[in-house]
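Quick one - inputs below.
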Amino acid sequence: MRAVRHKLVVGNWKMHGSRASNADLLSALLAAQPPVTDDADVAVCVPAVYLQDVSARLRGSAIAWGAQDVSAHDQGAYTGEISAAMLAEFGCRYTIVGHSERRTQHRESDELVAQKAQAALAQGITPIVCVGESLAEREAGQTEVVVKRQLSAVIHRLAHCAAEMVVAYEPVWAIGTGRNATSEQAQGVHAVLRAQLHAATGHGATLKILYGGSVKGSNAAALFAQPDIDGGLIGGASLNAADFVAICRAAG
Ligand code: PGA
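Output:
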């Protein structure tokens, strides 16, 4: 099932940054020579309040930008939420959905994550759907069951549109811990997810599956060399221009 899948590297800034530090970070990314986007498709997913600023700074560049979450609803009495149509108004290209921090801290269910992915796609925004097991689930031998359950809710809801999403495998125990999955561990899960996507959509060969969880300049190349790893979703290391550039280069 090997196909040409262009690598994608996405920075997930989480709740970090300021107008000044964002400007510095983006200037450094834009100044990198050769351009980071020569090596991979590159995007940054930023806090909602900075979306407009970031979109203005990246206008005309090949670096795309996205949100970190989106409402499942079109509009209405949902205080604090942001709809996909609102994001689309600004030209948003991607949104993360179902990040493990939202699944745990905001009790987002598989079904809600699927609805969010659907809401994004309906506005032409590519959802980056995160799946991943906790340490307890891995130790109980439940990794495959958990990630397949999380992905199947999304596949089921998106139906034929499932071919348009990006999937990110992020083992919860590897996020922000400095403890990344080995390339072999990650590849094993990616192969399972790809087979599931292929069986359900027929598009397993072209769908991108990113790895996330303590990706750094020093481990990115080995991860990205795996046949089913199509790039990365990068948290901490995306906040430092040199580190993020090194990861983008490793995707080339
Ligand atoms: P990390 O985060 O790279 O800091 O581990 C990844 C993520 O949560 O998307």
